[in-house]
Amino acid sequence: MHRSLREQAPLVQCLTNYVSMDLVANLLNAAGASPAMVHDDHEAGEMASLASAVVVNIGTPSPPWVSGMHAAASVARERGIPWVLDPVAVGATAYRRETVTALLAHRPSVVRGNASEVLAMASATAAGRGVDSTHESDQVVAPAQELATRLACVVVVSGGTDVVTDGDRTLLITGGDARMPLVSALGCSASALVAACCAVTPDPLVGAATAMALLAVAGERAGRTAAGPGTLRPHLLDQLHLLEPGALAGVTLR
To answer: SUPFAM superfamilies from the xrefs (predicted)?
Structure first.
């Protein structure tokens, strides 16, 4: 599927936040996809009809931006285009919780978040510390499975061990570099890469797992030469671009 991503170069419409736009676009380019940073409600729905996949990220929400999210997600749902919801800091404020609840009506193909975000969606009492996770991903396997079953979609929990589940099938992916959480917007970029991979396979579980495995391999290789998070970022883009067919063979899946 890694080969299909480069051969098909899917157009991914990214309704993402101010912090992440640069890294999201560059990471998609490095992986072989084509980013379209279109979020305004005057054109978001129209662009979604042209896209191969859509990612909706609520990192810096505002009413006009949320309106564009609904327009794009609605078109994606109607046309069978895979779309990914990234519920950034959903447990932090009522506005974010209300926004995510409303967006779920468009039935995302994948929800990707950190452990605290997924717990916040699975339980009304869970909360995170802003965009940071206060839980480990492998601690929320059961809630992620339950959430995936309830939403009838794939749920991805990123962390030291990535969890990818559709409620019935569950994959745990290890790899990457311990400094990856220090690179702002890398989680947002992971959501966009999940969307890109879902565009080239009919199975969103396979697409999501492939995306997380690509990041795990590229992150591990980048970490070998990076001095810190500042150099890890460009090295990660380079390694993602340089990944050869068959690079995922060494990824640990459980």
So the answer is: Ribokinase-like (SSF53613)
Per-residue DSSP letter, 162: E
158 labeled part of a ligand binding site: yes
The 10 Å CB-count burial string (b at 16+, else e) for 63-92 is: eebbbbbbbbbbbbbeeebbbbbbbbbbbb
20 marked as part of a ligand binding site: no
Q: What is the CATH number of the domain that holds 13?
A: 3.40.1190.20
3-state DSSP call for residue 53? strand
> What is the C-alpha separation between 191 and 86, in angstroms, rounded?
6
**Buried-state track 110-148, b at ≥16 Cβ within 10 A, e below 16:** bbbbbbbbbbbbbeeebbbeebebebebbebbebbbbbb
- Contact between 243 and 199 (Cβ < 8 Å): no
Residue 76 annotated as binding site: no
Is 247 within the bounds of a domain?
A: no
Q: Is 169 annotated as a binding residue?
A: no
Number of domains the chain is built from:
1
pLDDT tens across 108-129, in order?
Answer: 999 999 999 999 999 854 444 4
Any domain includes 250: no
Angle at which helices 229-242 and 21-31 cross, to 10°:
30
Digit-coded pLDDT (tens) for 130-189: 445 456 676 899 999 999 999 999 999 999 999 999 999 999 999 999 999 999 999 999
Note whether residue 249 is domain-resident.
no
Q: What is the residue range of 97's domain?
A: 2-242
List the structure tokens of 229: 């998070």
What's at 176, amino acid-wise? Answer: G
